Amino acid sequence: MQKTVLALALFGLGLGVAHADAVKIGHAGPLTGPIAHIGKDGENGARLAVEDANAAGVMIAGKKVTFELMGEDDQADPRMATTAAQRLADAEVVGVVGHVTSGASIPASRVYEQAGIPVITPSATNPKLTRQGYKVTFRVIANDLQQGAAMAQYAAESLKLKKVAIIDDRTAYGQGLADAFSDALKGYGVQVVGREFTNDKATDFMAILTKIKGQQPDAIFYGGMDAQAAPMLRQMRQLGYAGKFLGGDGVCTGEMLKLGGEALKEDTYCSQAGIPMEKMPKGADFKARFKKRFNTDVQLYAPYSYDAAMAMIEAMKVAGSTAPAKYLPALQSISYEGVTGQIAFDKFGDIKSGGTTLFQFKDGKWATLN
């Protein structure tokens, strides 16, 4: 009996040593709350990258390296984000994929800068994130300025809108996107007849929508996530509002298709930073492998999380080191062919070749427009 206990204890210690020797990469995003499906999607993308790297037997400085993903839940909350970031720093991760939202990414970025840990967001699009002068902050997706400009051009030139009302959720993401869209509309002579705001926990928008309906806009644009966009759209229909509904990438999700239900019609449009998966260089293969591994479809940002994790690993291989200070220069100059396209960063840490895609709801799904 004592031998069995001793053997089990040694086995447990062996597992502990293996765990301790692994090179830890962190992921931070909302794993609980209304957009937990987005956070889990991103975490799974990063996890698949780590598993692929381990299966390939990555060698760094002549030594085989095993990677491990450490996930933290920031609840898409700015205060929780700094706590999550500090936990990852204290755990001595060598890099972080995240955070998912701009509201979480911006405050957390200071923690990583102070710790000297590279962080690559797959989805935070507020331009302020990469304009803070930090050396360790990167983004593998287009920012709000590009996305807002694309939607504004389509709204003016293709949809021929003359008057638009704008609502945002007052998060760094939602307000930043709404501001970018509003500013871009001015260049096309489109009038913003109302600017309202809510929050990212709200479910009742009747008062706001009733006020907007009286202003008779041709469309309502919402800067925020699907958890609010879906009930907002349903309440628009209940009020008999006849205008179009526009949103950003927080609306362009598979979950929005489920939550929106019959309220979704062909007058619903959204923009998404990046390109459709079918247009990604390795999108079809990624989609199939993701489905097989996690038994669920890609929600939104998983391919970008995968590329963020892989870009770090590639930089470590180039630098011959997993130490953040040593592989950071290689990451700053990386040129890596990822799932989503070419991963290379400008002097601010923004992706050099980020694109934006527009979608329309049609035949039960998001159909690519441009």
Automatic annotation (TrEMBL):
Pfam families, alphabetized: Peripla_BP_6
Signal peptide: 1-20
Alphabetical list of CDD domains matching this protein: PBP1_ABC_LIVBP-like (cd06342)
Annotated keywords: Amino-acid transport, Signal, Transport
Biological process terms in GO annotation: amino acid transport
Keyword Signal: yes
InterPro entries, A to Z: Leu-bd, Leu_Ile_Val-bd, Peripla_BP_I
Domain of life from the UniProt record: Bacteria
Domain Leucine-binding protein: 23-349
Record family assignment: Belongs to the leucine-binding protein family.
Protein name, as recorded: Branched-chain amino acid ABC transporter substrate-binding protein
